[in-house]
Amino acid sequence: MNALRGFSLACLTMLVLIGTAGGGEQTNSGRGLWTVYNVENTSIASWFLTEVYEDVHGRKWFAGFDNGASLYDDGALITYNAGNSAITARTTSFIYHPHGAVWVGTEEGIVVLEEGQWSRLDKDGSLGLDDVFVSALLLDSQDRIWVGTWGEGIRLFEDGEWRSFRADDGLSDDRIWTFYEDSRGDIWVGSKGGITVFEADGGRTLYTTDNSPLASNEVRVFMENSEGDLYIGAYGGGMNVLHADGEWREDPYTVQQGLPSNFVTALAVLAPDEDAASDAELLWIGTEVGLVSFDGTSFSDPLSTRYLELSHHFIEDLHADEDGTLWIVTYGGGVNIYDPAEDAYEWLFPTETGLPANDVYGLLEDSQGNIWVGTSEGVAKFDGRTWETFIPQNSGLAYRYVNGLAEDKHGRIWMSTLSGGSVYNHGEWIEYDRFGDDEGEQQLPSNSLFNVYYDSQDRVWFATGLGAAVLEDGEWTLYNRGDGLNTNIISVVTEDSMGRVWLTHWQGINILDNGFWNSLKTENADIRTDLVLASREDSQGRMWFGTIGDGVAIYDGRQWTKLNRANGRLPNDNVRSFAEDTATGRTWVGTDGGVIGLVNDELWMVYTAESTPLPHNRVNELLLDRNGNLWVGTANGVAVFHPGEDFPLLDTASNVFPWQESAWKDASGRDEGDLG
Q1: What gap in Å lies between CA 203 and CA 211, rounded to an integer?
Q2: What beta strand segments (E) does 465-540 contain?
Q3: Among 644, 489, 618, which Cα is nearest to 548's?
Q4: Are the CB atoms for 530 and 510 separated by under 8 Å?
Q5: What's the CA gap between 113 and 181, in Å, rounded?
Q6: What are φ and ψ of residue 498, in 5° steps?
Q7: Predicted pLDDT of residue 300
Q8: pLDDT at res. 212
Q9: pLDDT for 205
Q10: S-S: 551 plus which of 157, 249, 478, 573, CB 3.0-4.6 Å?
Q11: Closest Cα to residue 480, out of 499, 460, 463, 459?
């Protein structure tokens, strides 16, 4: 069983925690109810997992690389982390204690769950285990507890007493990777510097590359088959075999014999299915670049992400349960399961993982009321209760970075990514690619896409790095500098009520009106910057533009109105998105300083991460759904604001702003005039 994985890799933050129905955490801020969705509160502890452990009740425990552990029990999943347990650090390993307690090894010692209560083992430090990096745990057949550490050797709890073993005492190395008990009761210890065997009769044996055929001194995993042969994952050297008669296979198995990689990370033995053509048991071998099976003679073809069998190629741990199911834990793709009876692979928890990533760049409510969220790692669909996540490995998504979403009149969802476009058509996928040379792909003028828009004339527009590409009646037209655009790099496309198409970008604004392109820039418009990243038309026919550095510019066709820090109308001059609630007269503005609420062009409120449950002050996208809820896509997840009927609790007064002339305090509770 693997204990410490990815120790040398950079920590990647993808912690997930079960919250309320639909996976969100709800908080009442005093001015409406907020619900926050991000990878901190939507399901399994992490996509970067390091171990799977099955306890005596058949429950599966998963160790996350970053701040948490998850328990999977009969279809229910709960994640434990600092918010609801004593776990405050990366988890590595588990044991189920005979007295009913679960011990969890972490990089800051051991935490214990017993009778629903969490505590820290050795919190007073008397055992020398407090704040120690615990890398492996084992409860052996004699009810002894073995604790492996990273740098401080082994602690053994036996007959009520703790003992220590270090390299100075003959241990192969003080950096422990794993423990394994074989059929004879011998305890095998894999370390950074070789193998130590604590034999059942009290003896001890060391194996290294100096005194054995061991292919590498770094040993991460052991597995014994039904014949008593022991397979050893020699990290970097392949796989050794020590036969039941004590003889080593002369040469290790390596990539030359069929391993995907010589860096072996996980092993599991799967008994043959009763309907299988062969009665040979299979050894499954996980490596850093894929998974293979071995029948004792030959290897299967490697399985990886190429043909979508697995969600990620980096295999961290394997476990064969009593039902004959192979549980495959990956570093970056969560959990996969293999059903040998069906010869089928499945990515576990795909509908429960919520957001693929926290940085949100696209929001859409479709005609069925589903909310779509585009992120840097894929797109998620939320039906109000459950999440469905699409990434390139489990769908026809062209690329993971999704920055734009649109729905056409047929109910198809169009997606722009940084490397191609995709269409989700009621469960089927179509990919748009610049080259269009693969089956099922349609040609696209450019693969560098920054947004997508569906207009009133049944046309689909992509904002690209080569201009504005429009698909009409199956044909593409590309507008660029040669057609009168200020630049080829387009940020956003939108349409007004007169059918004019507006393009915003880093060189101002272009308008397609009656077949001709017009231009608005600092030289002929009342804007101080040409960097325009957002646009929309309001219910009065005015165009709102969000700039980087000069706040909001509103254009009614004749005059410009400015809202920025200079005139006291905004707390931040970087504006990325807008939403309007015509039923209440509220306009919402997303900035790098939080969300601004404007009521009837008069009263403003500021909602920030410091004053509300908003997960981040950088607001990339806003969406007002059919129920009047405001979805806020931020750099750290999605927040949904339910303002309620009494919002805002202010007296109406012309041109009154709460931090300037009103006694009202904004959502942070700060006094007027204090913009922080």
Answers
A1: 17
A2: 467-472, 475-479, 490-495, 501-505, 508-513, 516-520, 532-537
A3: 618
A4: no
A5: 24
A6: -95, 5
A7: 87
A8: 96
A9: 96
A10: 573
A11: 463
Check residue 119 and give its pLDDT.
Answer: 93
- Full 3-state SS string of 260-314: CCCCEEEEEEECCCCCCCCCCCEEEEEECCEEEEECCCCECCCECCCCCCCCCCC
> How many CB atoms within 10 Å of residue 289?
17
Q: Which tokens sit at 121?
A: 């083992």
Asked if 17 and 81 touch (Cβ cutoff 8 Å), the reply is yes
Residue 340 near residue 380 (C-beta atoms within 8 A):
no
Other beta carbons within 10 angstroms of residue 442's beta carbon come to 15
Cα dihedral value 646, 651, 655, 659, nearest 10: -80
619-624 and 603-607 beta bridge pairing: unpaired
The H-or-E segment that residue 181 falls in is: strand 176-181
Q: What is the DSSP letter of 574?
A: B
> CA 260 to CA 299: how far, in whole Å?
10
Q: Which residue has the tokens 């009154």?
A: 656
At 276 the pLDDT is 53
What is the pLDDT at residue 350?
Answer: 46
Whether the upstream peptide bond of residue 658 has omega within 30° of 0, thus cis, is no
Integer angstrom CA distances of residue 242 from 106, 136, 194, 246, 332: 31, 23, 14, 6, 32
Task: Give the tokens for residue 182.
Answer: 């074989």
Q: Which two tokens stand for residue 449?
A: 């896409």
What are the per-10-residue average pLDDT scores of the chain (676 residues)?
30 22 41 57 71 91 86 80 87 89 94 92 84 95 96 94 93 96 97 96 95 96 95 96 95 94 94 64 92 90 64 88 88 82 68 71 94 93 81 90 96 95 94 66 82 96 95 92 94 95 94 92 81 92 93 89 81 92 86 83 74 86 90 89 54 29 30 28
What residues contact residue 396 under an 8 Å CB cut-off, 6+ apart? 422, 424, 428, 429, 430, 431, 440
Please name which of 474, 464, 457 lies closest in space to residue 408, comparing C-alpha atoms: 457
- In this structure, are residues 228 and 222 in contact, taking their beta carbons and an 8 Å threshold? no
Q: What is the pLDDT of residue 17?
A: 22
Tokens of 79: 């994640």
- CA–CA distance, 142 with 71 (Å, rounded to integer): 26
Q: How many CB atoms lie within 10 A of CB 651?
A: 10
Are 630 and 623 within 8 A, CB to CB? yes
Q: Measure the CA–CA gap between 504 and 518, rounded to whole angstroms.
A: 12
User: What is d(CA 346, CA 337) in angstroms, rounded to the nearest whole number?
Assistant: 5
| CB-neighbour burial class of residue 649 (10 A; exposed 0-12, middle 13-18, buried 19+) | exposed
Structure tokens at 538: 């309001």
CA atoms of 199 and 188, how far apart (whole Å): 8
Question: E strands along 183-281, which residues?
Answer: 187-191, 194-198, 204-207, 219-224, 230-234, 238-242, 264-270
Q: How many residues does the chain have?
A: 676
Q: State how far the Cα of 444 lies from the Cα of 623, in Å rounded to an integer.
A: 28
**Residue located via tokens 């552990």:** 69
> Kindly report the CA angle at 535 between 599 and 420, in degrees rounded to 5?
135
Amino acid at 11: C
CA geometry: angle 301, 305, 306, nearest 5 deg:
70
